[in-house]
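>> received
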Amino acid sequence: MGFLDRGLEIKTPAQVDDMRRAGLVVGRTLELLRGAVRPGISTGELDAIAEESIRSSGATPSFLGYHGFPASICASVNDEVVHGIPGDRVLQPGDVISIDCGAIVADDAGQGWHGDAAITVAVGEVPAEVSDLMRATEAAMWRGIGAARVGGRVTDISHAVETQVRGAGSYGILEDYVGHGIGTQMHLPPNVPNFGKAGRGPRLVQGLALAVEPMITLGGKQTDVLDDDWTVVTTDGSWAAHFEHTFVLTDTGTWVLTALDGGEEMLTSLGVPFGGRTGTKD
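>> returned
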């Protein structure tokens, strides 16, 4: 592992493989949670499912205890954008829930490596505008990941996210909450905003792992934090969506470490070279 460009953490291929293992734990846990979302289940029950999934995989929840956060997932419902604390809230038909999940897998030397991803799931049928918001947010995440190239700049990702969102409708893009570097810690430099001009920020290089996570609303970009000091809600009460994946640039292309297929299907559809390696997908 090396460091360059103002302290960026650059991973070796072996360390990327360790991150892939963490990413698979996260990806599988999120798919389990996607299937568990239904009317009548509580966000606390979803959290219990997540913790059991992560620990049974030999990993540790990244979020539990992080700066005092009391759960293994963030569960944010409707106008809650991110960082919702799981608890007694019971999901109702027509809700949407953003589930953010992180896991740590230790290598042979005991060093922990992080994976981080998020999905937004509809609880039964939701209004068309909400479905459109979810599709626009997920598409923006993939466009952002797809814009990353060795030799490019971090805000190439930002610009691609914003361009995709602006082309999809009149949505709010959160500016105070952004994507980030990831590796031996969950949050590392650089920040990865979801808006801005291309060609700025640190240079993208092989071995740089980033989490891209657009947070998009049906209304404005302004947010407040609830009295629990964690839950971020839209100021205007508009509903929100949030998607996230962790990816890395390799010598052959882009590898989405938290996608079960490594991102191969979506990257191929975008014309982006897939950078996964045989033997580390499963």
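>> The mean pLDDT is 95.
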